[in-house]
Amino acid sequence: MGERPGGRDLKRKSLGASFLIGPHAHIALERLAAEALTRREFATALKYADRRIRVSPPPAAHCFVLRAEAAWGLGLTEAALSDLARARRVDPFDVGANRRMLAWAADERRLAAAAQLICREGSPAILRAAIAELRRAGGRHWAACSVFDNHVTGWIAWTNALFVELSLATEDGTLTSILEPNPFHALASADVQATTFLVRRPASTTAQIVTLRCGEDVVQVRRVAPNLTSTMNLRAARDPSIGIGPNVDLPTVIVPVYADAQATIECFESLDKARRPQGTGKDAFQVLAIDDASPEVELQRHMSELATAGKIRLLVNPVNLGFVGAINRALNEIQRGDVVLLNSDTLVPPGFVGRLANVAYSAPNIGTVTPLSNNGDIFSFPTPNDVNPMPRYDEIVAIDRVASAANAGKAIDVASGIGFCVFITRACLDSVGELSDNFDRGYLEDVDLCLRARTNGFRNVCAPSVYVGHHGSKSFQEEKRGLVLRNLGILDQRFPNYREECRAFEMADPLRPARAALERALPWPAEPSVLVLASERTCSAVTDARIRHLHLHSERTVLLSRDHNLLHLRAADGGLPQTTRLRLDTEANLANAGDILRRLSPTRVEILEPNPPPRLIELILSLDVPIDRWLISESIGEIGSLPSGTTPLFVPSKMAEAYAQSRWPDRKIVRHDWPTCLLTLPPISANDKSLVIVPSTPTLASMRMTETLADRLWGREPSLPIVIAGATCGDDRLMSRPNIFVTGAIAADDLGDVLRPHNPGWILTDFEQPVFGHPLVETARQATRPVAYRDWSGGRLKPRKGDLAISAIVNAAALADLVIDWTTRP
């Protein structure tokens, strides 16, 4: 089962090693996990891999693979498969995760892993296993292709006797080769033919298309970047004799089309409604659609009908060129005028092109304009960098109408636009040229274009007066993460400061005032709400737990988070409000805050904040709704501010009830036990046990108390390790001690899995200051292990057999001695 935490690791630490602290500690954790796996010490590997996943920087896919290997070695099959699934969510292309999923899974996940391995695996044995899995699902041919500046190489395997053809389409024509099967190929067998190929690439300043066919079936089509640098811009490359109709100066909305017939048809219906502004008989824009070899017959037919009716101009690609290839073909068809790049899974409101154009020409140096959306990363509303629900068309029109008034005339600078809907001026387009062919299928090439535009002196802005609905990820779905990772690497090389700029933008959030203005102007849900008041200093774990409990009872909850004289309103269900902030510094602002809170149709207010200021209490009383005052910490200084006869004190546990009764014997106490996660621990081993500390909050006082305990335990029992299960305010400082290991931040429902490799013999929790309703503390209390804690009840509650109830008034040194005596009893 692996080496105990107090063995080899303690010896290393006692020699003064600092391998688990500092800026490169995450690398050391990965190395130690890998070394333990090599030694088949799976419990040790699990410990290190688990901590690596819980600390910065964010874990890559291989970190989850390390933890999966350790879990698999310990017989934890579901945990191992769950980690492989998480690895594939981080990077669907990760070879290690897909190899193990192919070998370990027994369901459809094997098929998905096999499909990813085909293009990336180098081991013939694993490729044969992947091909066998895909054959069982009906596959008949498989191929992998690698592109270099001077040649294209790869392999293809197939199960029928039809010919295999490879073609390379260049600006000067098409080179075609017939591939013969090689019976000695590593993938060949009695019923599978296979061969390798290598095709020379002629020098070209334009993209080339590689196509593999097996009989009538297209096995693979790949658009490859030019292998010569072009000095021509888009205007020079365009044939001036090509126009797209009589209104050549009108903006052109370019829509690449491939799949999802329903969403695409609805997109073009919304474009048709938006084409002519109300009261005019003229088109405000024209539409150029590109059927990028769509496999859906219904979609092909519908696009053809729109073109026949004169509603769109249609280009049809004989083979799929991908987003970049489709857009670039369209750009080279357009002679003049601005363009709008639009995804086919969007719904647009009336007048959107004209209003984007107004923002674009509100300053001479604006190059691109992006609207707000439900699903647009930083442009998302109401919650940024999140996928908000897709509204219906009529809801999109209504939101857009309000946005056009609430944010009229605003243009907010952003690092880059996003291609779900981005307006590009002709001057900007002629300056930057086409989309880059170096990006793979549909992600970040729009960001690259915007960053190139900024380099050329153009501004990228958001128009918060326009709102466009966006389904999102309809085309690639599972592949999105892998494509983003690959393309982000290319973007990093070109614009190395972009990621840091994005982080700074998210922290500053310059779009927040515009979102808030739109939010305040929109109607809010009429559904009754429970208002939960907490402060920035309230334990967030307790607040989150209470909101989850209310959700379980189907109660809509709005969190009122106070920071000094500001209240931040956030609906827990993701609806409105999300961004609204209320000032509490003047009587006028208090009156305004009261009016806004009444818009939420409150049924009651739950106060979790220990010490709200008197003026906030007065504001809450003015709402004339029931008030539930919860005791979640020892500090409740305003207890007399609320009428004791009508406002009981609510408590979430027996310990909180006993504590309240001891402090306020005349107060009416009402206990409502909050749900607690079930803590499942494996059978305890008689030897190699550890003392687990589950802190409630990562405070300096908690860390100092832990250090006192560690010092005294090291002097008495140096072979007994301490495991801190949770976050601290000084991981490096604690991990530098020879007998402490810190797991990193965890959730209550993770506690059992995190503690598994540490063989917990005793648990110490709730030893700092009273915090009631904390999910980690309450979960730890009911562990099937002896538990030590401070007895906030003053002896009113009898401890379980084997537990240690410590007086609330003992100091840190005395507490440490009591815990050490408890753990070292014979």
TrEMBL record:
It is an enzyme of class 2 (transferase). GO terms for molecular function: glycosyltransferase activity. Residues 252-367 form the Glycosyltransferase 2-like domain. Keywords: Glycosyltransferase, Transferase. The keyword Glycosyltransferase applies. It comes from the Bacteria. Belongs to the glycosyltransferase 2 family. This is GT2 family glycosyltransferase. It comes from Bradyrhizobium yuanmingense.
